[in-house]
Amino acid sequence: MFKSLNTAATGMIAQQSNIDVVANNIANVNTAGFKKSRAEFEDLMYSNQKDPGQASGLNSITPTGVQTGLGVRTASIQKDFGSGQTQITHNPLDFQIEGNGFFQVRTPDGEIGYTRDGAFKKDASGKIVDKNGNSLIPELIIPETAMVVEATPTGEIRVIHNTGADPEVIGQVELANFINPAGLKSMGKNLFVPTAASGQPASMRPGTQGAGFLAQNQLETSNVNIVDEMINMITAQRAYETNSKVIQTSDQMLQTAVNVK
Fold it and tell me: Taking the domains of the chain in order of start, what are their residue ranges?
């Protein structure tokens, strides 16, 4: 059997993974704080009929060798943590991180999740939570009497109770940073959790130790570029079709060999 049959099949499987990644990027083009992914591939082992540098005679070696590749596989799916665009919302509980860092929220199971989605709200007790009810860490409660909520670029949260009154500081937003954000594990619902690859989180005030500043009344949109994704989709589709043509060609060659009498 021709090796090309299995080799082309691995190419088709790899392009299926590629189009799955592109589809997820496009599906989340309007997801606040979403970070796009990129599929990365590597070649498989080689069938060596003659190694490069093998002795070919007295005092002579072969300059190239004979190696036949056996296909491709998906090596990794890399997260791109480049910043998205800014969307002005005029919502005082919408925060954007201008630079590095993640908001910290406590999930219902008591674990800490990390997110770039800064669309926060108040629950029935005035606590600041995300859209899934996960409370922001450190916990912040806005008093019922608060008329205005202000957030400084360094994460200090203030409220004004009456017109002309001085602002009252009620808490501090802290960000977490990672040595290798690409090593975070995606959990859905715009949340990440640390892994051995990402390293442990370091908590800090916005604008310090390499963390970005906090911007109020605006959100970070997805960093997906729809034009780039359309190009990636077309490229993956054509690569898939070409690999299928290799299988058809190999099948025709096999048929020719079978029909030889």
Answer: 3-51+64-80+224-259, 86-220
